[in-house]
Each structure stands twice: as C-alpha cells, then as structure tokens.
Amino acid sequence: MNMFAGRSTSAAEEISHDAFSPKARMIAPACDGGQGTAGTFVSRNFTLGGNPSSARLNISALGLYRAFINGKRVGDDLLTPGWTCYDDRIAYQSYDVSALLQSGENRIEIWLGDGWYRSQILWPSNPIYNCWGDRVAAIAELSSEDGTLLATDETWRSGFTPVLRNGIYYGEDFDARIVPEDSAGVDVLDFDTALLVPHEADAVKELAPFSPIDSWTEDDGRRVFDFGQNAGAYIRIRLKGKAGASVRIEHSEVLGPDRFFDNRNYRSARAELTYTLKGDGEETYAPLFTFMGFRYARVTLPEGVELVSIHSVPITSVPVQAGGFTSGIPAVNRLVENSIWSQRSNFIEIPTDCPQRDERVGWTGDAQVFAGTACWLADSQRFLTKYLRDVMHDQRPNGAVPHFSPDPTRLHPIGERGDWAGSTGWGDAIVIIPWQLYLHYGDDAVLRECFPAMQRWLDYLWSISDGPIIRPPAVWGAHGFTFGDWLQPVGDNRKPRPTVADDCAATLYHFISTDLASRIAGIIGDEAAAARLAARAQEIRLAFSHEFFSPSGRIAHNDQTSWALAFLYGLVPPEFVEAGKSYFRRVVEETDGLIGTGFIGTPALLPALTELGMVDLAEKIFLNRKVPGWLYQVDRGATSIWERWDALAEDGSIYDPSMNSYNHYAYGAVCQWLFEYVAGLKPVAEAPGFRSIKLNPSILPALSPVSAWHDCRHGRISASWSVEGELATFKVSLPEGVTAHLDKACKHRPLSVNGVPVGADEEVRIGSGAHEITFAL
Ligand code: BGC
Predict the structure, then answer these.
(1) Does the Cβ of 677 fall within 6 Å of ligand 1?
(2) What's the predicted TM-score (pTM) here?
(3) Which of 42, 153, 405, 754 is deepest in the core (most CB within 10 A)?
(4) Is 441 in the pocket of ligand 1 (CB under 6 A)?
C-alpha cells in the first residue's frame, strides 16, 4: 500500500513549497523501541557565529512533537503537529525562535510522542495500533535571512526523554530523574515532504486553569479534587518530595452515589498520569502528549511528597468564544455554558464525539448535527474545513462517507463489521457542514471544494436505495447500514413510544442532502447538477409520501423525529399539513413534554415546532425538567452535555458505563435553535456570512429576558428581548456591513421601530447600529 498516495488537491494549494529545503529529512530516533515504549527525542548541538536577528523553525513530526532550544520550549502550541489523515496531509508549524538562540553553542531537542499516529485508537475489541506508521520521527529546518542554519539529517543524535510511556488513551508516565542524553543515532526515513502543509486550523491551546472547588480524602488515603467543570484537559501539579517517589493521578467525569470515584465509562482508556519526582525542590508537571476528559482527579501521594498545587488545564482548538445566550432561567444559561464546554472539549484538532473514553474520534454524524451551533459559539471555519478535507480523503471509492474521520479503519479494516462508512445522518456531514460554513462565513469556496464529494455521496445513497426509499439492513456493517436516529429514547419501556424506523430515517436524510446539494449546485453555478439533483429530490419526496404517509396524513411511525424532520425539510405533502400538525402536537402532548428524539431528530425538533407556530410545545419540551429532556442533566449538576439523556439516574447512579459519556456535544445542537429562533437571528443563504439577517424572535415568555450575541466577520451582532404584559421589546444591534429584515412569517405585529410607528403591511429593514422594535404579542 502506498500510504502517501492521493492527497486532496485543495490542501495541496496551501503548501508553501519553501517551508522545507531538500536538506531537511524526516529522521527517526534509532533508540525508539516502538509504540508504548520509552519516549525518545532527536537532537543536535550546533554553533552560531552570531545571534541571527530573525530565525524561524519550521517543524513537523510523525507522532507528536515538543521542541526545545537551549532548554526552552518552542511556542506554546499543544499536541503538534495536530491530527489529520496523515497519509494525505501532515501539518507543520513555523515559529520565530530568534529569542531562544544565542551566539556560540546551541542545542535543539525534539521530543516525540506516540499520539494519534501510533498509540491505540478504538476500543479493545478492535484496537488499532501503529495506525499511520510504527516509527515516530521529526523533520525540522531552522533558517534565518541568510538561509538554512540547520536541518534534520543523518548527523542528528537521539536518546530517551523522561516520558516513560505515553498514548492518547493511555495517559503518560514521566520520570523527572531522567535527563535527556544523546545515546544513539537517527535513521533517515523515506518520506515525501509534499505531504507537509501549513497547519490548516489554529493550534490547540491551554485555557485558563481551574483550581479545585472541593477536595476530600478517601478511606485509603487517596485525595480527590473536584475542579467544578468537566473538560478536555490535563492536570498541572506542583510537588515537593524525595527523588524516586511516584505520584499517580486518575481522572473521572462523574461521581457515583456517596461520591464514589467512577471512571468505568473510560472503558479501556487508562487515562492516568504517573509522575516520579526528581527530588530537587519544587517541581511542576503537566503531560506533554495526552489529554483526558474529566472533572475530578484522584491523587495517590506517597509518604513524604507534598502537593503544592493542582489545577485542571482545559485545552482546545477554539479558545475564543464567539457567541453567548442568556435568559431569565439559570438552568438554560447553564445548558448553553455546557454546550460551549462540550465544544471546547471536543474541538481538539478534530471534532470528536467525546474526550474521555477509548474513542475520541471524529464521528461525522455528531459533527454535522452540531455544526450550526459550533459556528455560533466559536469561529469554526478553519477547524471544520480542515476536518472536511479528512472526510473527503476518507471517502470510499463507492462514495460512502466514513462514520468517523480521520478513519483508522480505512487503513486497517475491521473484518466483522464491514466497511465503517455509509450511514445516513453521518455521511451527510459532507453536505451539511459545508452548508453551515457557507451560511456563517459567506465563502463559497468550501461548497466548491466539497461539491464533487457531495455528489459521490448522493450517488452512493441512490445506489443503496430502492426507488428511492432506502431500506437499510439491521446488521451493523452490512452494506447500506444506518445508525438511524441513534440513541433515540424509547421512553418508559413498559409502554415504549414509537421510534422512527431506519428506512424512514435514512430516506429523510436521502432527501435532505439531495435537496440541499441541488441548492448548493445552483450557488456554485452548476445548473445542470442543480436540475438533476432537484429532479432526484422530487422523486424522493414523492416516494417518501407514498411510502410513509397514510391517506389521513399520519406519518408511519408517528414519532417526534419523523415529524420534526419531515416538517422542517418540507416533506409533508401540502394536503397533509393540517392533519400532520395535529398528529405532531398529539405525539408531543402524549409525552407530557418528554423528548423522544435521538441524534438526528433532536436538532430538528424545536425548530420544526417553532416554524409550525407550536411555540407552546417547544417551550414545554425545552423547559421540561424530567428525563429525557435538556434541563434534567443540568439539574443533576452536569457541566457539559451528556451523550445519553439518562446518563445519570435520579438517585445519581450511573447508567450503563459501557457506553456513557458526560461530554458529548450532539444534544447541545439545541443552541442553534436558541440563536436562530428564540433570539430570532437567522443567517440568510442569499446574503451569507451575515451580510443580511432574518429577524423573527420567538417570544417564549418563560425565558424573558433573553439576550444573545455573536461575533461574525463584520463585528458583533446582538439581540435581546423582554416581555411586559402584551408588549415585547426587541433590541438588535448590528455592525457595519450587516443589514436585517423582519421575517414576513413573524407572528408578532411590529408596532414601532426606534419609536417610529410601523404600518400594518410595512416592511421592516434595519442597518448597522442599535435598534429597538416593539411588538404586540
Ligand atoms: C459515538 C457517537 C457516534 C455513535 C454512532 C458512538 O460510539 O460516541 O457519538 O455517533 O457511536 O454509532
């Protein structure tokens, strides 16, 4: 197999050809014993005649690297060079290192970690080791205005770092007594430098650390610290004690009843740190090549070791918050905070499902349902565009889009589960994520870049359909398998509620993506494709109606997901709209506001109800405090979004630890509804990137006062409303370059704009600046 064949062309455009000269070679430490063994470095001592006024280090690695010049760390980026389909592209970073160099003797050391490149990926029934290769290595070039000063080549040396063992799931063992010493040479690897691209996303950074908000000692003397926030993070400790003493740090997201320290949900991810002291005064340690998902840490301190301080240091690729939403209900505000934390925790190089267990992979379904929310809460353009390139690289020759990307199973197929690609709702990421990026950032380049892959995905869907209903096999791995509405709660199992069936869920998405791609084709000027896909979408629409609607207008499974998706995407035939609305209403009323949707139904549920004018029901479901419902988890003390609605029972006991994450952003997709429907700020496809906004706040009196903000490319947009009696005051502030208009569908009658009365049929349009619109409710 040629590991390095077939790079995506778009990324190739970003290559800076002079980043590395032919002198720079990919070199592997000759002393490296393979994955899971002692950490190694490559190094070089070198002499400089003077101190160069400007010097740059361009650097990358197979595995993870951390570089030091004269004992000082280069930059503060984490987990570099990042994670991509390494057989397609490997990022490199470029640092100004002038301040680290000196005239005379210098030394550079590049420490290497196993990282995603070769440490375990996926759970123990199919663990993949050495996914992209079995040798860690580095490539680096130091240059000044006079040209190359130093480059990795066969003259470099290697040796062992204090990192005894490391792995993304494993954690890290560190022996501070080990002083790196050159002990072996290097092997120059056969490596194609055309794979190297400038980092396509912003590097992972530390956020402000958390101090413990509580701590206690267990019976056996182990100390537990509560940092108050579940996050993708690592521990930083300061210690004092004798040389050779070892400290062990375990992590957990939750406590069971009686503060039972419970991390069974990490499954085979060891997710621990051990630190062995050097013994010369105060020592500080934070792991170099791993991270965990946790709120609690349990520390085993040997006799004679003093813990000076301990912090949890969250890390993320999106450190800058770009949006916020608050209301008069504290639990709702916490839910939004929880979504922000789940985004931060799972936007670490790629959008992952969770940051804690032996998974942490870029599930496409999770990413697509959350993409809109992600763009509201943080600038996600570069991050998601980079991810889409991996998704495209992982796309199969038959057009199937992977279940997750970068996809280790493409290189190491897992026999009994077939090809890990092709699920509806997941593979549709290739259509939906570019669309959200287009709406938010207004650049059609991402549509153009992804359109061929979209078409191949849609052709795949058509190929597994049967004129054009998709009837997925029930067995995971069989050709055409779908996750359906994954984790849909079936309610009280003495009387389960109907759930969307796989054929309906799959066909709904078949339509959604085909229809959207036809729109996209029109935007990028491919009229022929637009017409072809529009005709196909119409065929699916008719077949859907024939297959899934009864003559009285009831949808086959009569469940919340079917109704929400069918209404939101225009699949309810006009003659059934009224009947459908009452069925939908009943389905929600019967549950007394309990949510009945899984991964794909959830983001659609409240928007669909709101669009249909059933705001009372949207409010009831959203504010329901029982399980399943969003605020149930907040009431149980959640500080990030749970994977399952019922992840903790009322009595605090843990639901099935074999698949239970407390930091899974998928259900946080409800934030998109808060911004677009409750705050009433909808991006407009005809003027994307917020050049224009459609205003239509849904006034849910229980939430008053509501306020939202978002930093778009033009500046800050903010909106707020509050209710007094039958009057609502809606304030909007727009930056230069942004206009807004009141949606014709707005059901509140605008009375005045900035104090000037508005006629009954008068259009309301506003430009930059602060505005106040009053509504009669
Ligand atoms: C992951 C998901 C994913 C799902 C699909 C889970 O194990 O954590 O979030 O979408 O599998 O089956």
Answers:
(1) no
(2) 0.96
(3) 42
(4) no
